[in-house]
Amino acid sequence: MKTWHIVASLVAAAVLTLTVGLSPSRGAPAADQCPQLALGFTERQRADLAQAATYTRDQAGLPGLIAAVFVPDRGAWVCVLGVSDLETGHPLNAADRFRIASITKTFTATAVLQLVDRGKLTLADPLSRWVDWPDGNAITIRQLLNMTSGVFSYTEDPEFVRRYTEDPEGAFTARDALDIARAHEPYFAPGAGFHYSDTNYILLEQVVEKITGRPVADWIDDHIIAPLHLAHTSYPATSTLPAPFSRGYDALPPPQQPVPAEPEPSRPGTPAPQPAPSPQPGAAPARNASPSPSPAGPSLADLRDVTYSNPNYAGAAGAMVSNLADLRVWAKALAEGSLLSPAMRRELLRTTPIAPNAGVSYGLGIADWGGWLGHNGTILGYNAAMFYEPKTGSVIVVETNRSSLTSDTATPLFTELAKSVRS
Hints:
The chain has eleven helices and 14 strands. It has helices spanning 4-14, 43-60, 104-117, 141-145, 158-166, 174-182, 198-212, 216-228, 324-336, 342-348, 410-422; strands at residues 37-40, 64-71, 75-85, 90-91, 98-99, 249-250, 304-305, 321-322, 352-353, 360-362, 367-369, 372-379, 382-389, 394-400. Strand 3 and strand 4 form a beta hairpin.
């Protein structure tokens, strides 16, 4: 069997050129083969991986899906199914960029921990030191990072959901998000529980910008993206995406019915407890759950294109864009804390259970899903999951180009892929 060094080289060369030929007509993608890359693993494992990916795509009615598994000394497997553009029928490509939604939180949290390493703040600092906020003297930086602050998530506000769903490109600012959250009572007193809240990371965005005097995107560019050479990762300032990218789709919402806010991280999926990471979070299904994507619902021809979205709706909680190659690198760097001091690496992985007997816990912007470390994310049009297993050095990445604020197909598929490579 080829050594991992050879496998890694082949993957690096191949992963940017994998495509699947499809009919150019709008509608269901033609039957295609999965995987496009398979090195190592047993025949049974490869069959199980392919079955999980194709089942998810078919059952959830996804225009396109990318799933990849990399296990040192055992194999590399990449599956690219469907199209990136329903109008033209352009095939999805492994190099395509996707909105990664709440996986953005892993970058924001790392930025905060880097500032702690530089002595600019501490995890025990009260929020009020940087931002005027109700109970700000009792809320700490750590509690914002690990979702124990009790602060209401603006993405669970029905009016916000209606506004974002109806007009993804509409005007919105971080101040709007904070005003929405401020108008709601907290879930609990600071430190008294766990509730996934996107507002926590909008507040952390304010903290980073107060300390550095620059947009949080600048710090992430200079201190995370550049050192790791993540050439396909960005924090967009506008609704457009850098090419190449996959378009994103969602079903039309029922007339005059508000779309509920996304599930929170509680059932793993990048952290996705009860209502998982909202618009950019990723709802997380129960551990060891079988893939159970939502019914396909409307045919692909009835989906609406929601590719263009004002990044300020998600901000530091979910605005970023990336692709498979970069997420593979980031999954490992994040989990190993390669851009942090040893002390901050330990703090990163001090986790809090998201719910009793959930099998998933949340650290400082990172989830521990039964030993797999990473995050998931959901936003209009896109859904992703990115996890790393320290014991084996394995990485699993899933990206899809169809999603509502409440759906999550990437996380259940991740759990199935993880089970397949462990069998």
